[in-house]
Amino acid sequence: MPLKIRLARGGSKKRPFYSVVVADSRMPRDGRFIEKIGTYDPRQPKDSDLRVKLDGQKAADWIKKGAQPTDRVARFLSQITLDGETQPVFAWEKGNNPQKGEPGAKAKERIEEKAEKEAARKEAEAEAKAAAKAAAEEAKAAAEAAAAEAETEAEGEAEADSEEK
């Protein structure tokens, strides 16, 4: 029978109060438990003695019997030392889950699609700029050619006028 030392919620709506219990891990959170070993009132100030009340000796006995505390209860137990001992009841270490903040598969797909659309938009923008530049150069070349042609016509007319005179 896998045992857990965990919190069982009590109190009314928006007024939480927890009992620290030893229970079979297959039982519901607020369901049947084996023994109540303390209380936790999250509404109390963090430095208050009333916030967490735990019987360290009972917790240590249950841990020796194989009960595993949940993360929150392990945090509480790591702050309690028994009389005559230097070590806490339970050595709690901060967990590290680097995948916790990583987006899911669908979100990754959306990010990928967005990146592809952005790349396509930038490429189209670059092509449009290149086409506009080419069109401007063509227009400039056409204007220069027209100006050169107009000059040659003007020179030809001037020569024709001078020949007529």
Structure explained in plain terms:
The mean pLDDT is 88. Strand 1 and strand 2 form a beta hairpin. The protein has helices at residues 56-64, 71-77, 105-164; strands at 3-10, 17-24, 35-40, 52-54, 68-69. It has a five-stranded mixed beta sheet with strand order 4-3-2-1-5. The chain is built from three helices and five strands; from the N terminus they run E-E-E-E-H-E-H-H. The protein is rod-shaped, with a radius of gyration of 41 Å. The chain has two domains: 3-77, S16 Ribosomal Protein, Chain: A (2-Layer Sandwich); 103-165. By secondary structure, the protein is α+β, with helices and mostly antiparallel strands. Helices cover 46% and strands 16% of the residues.
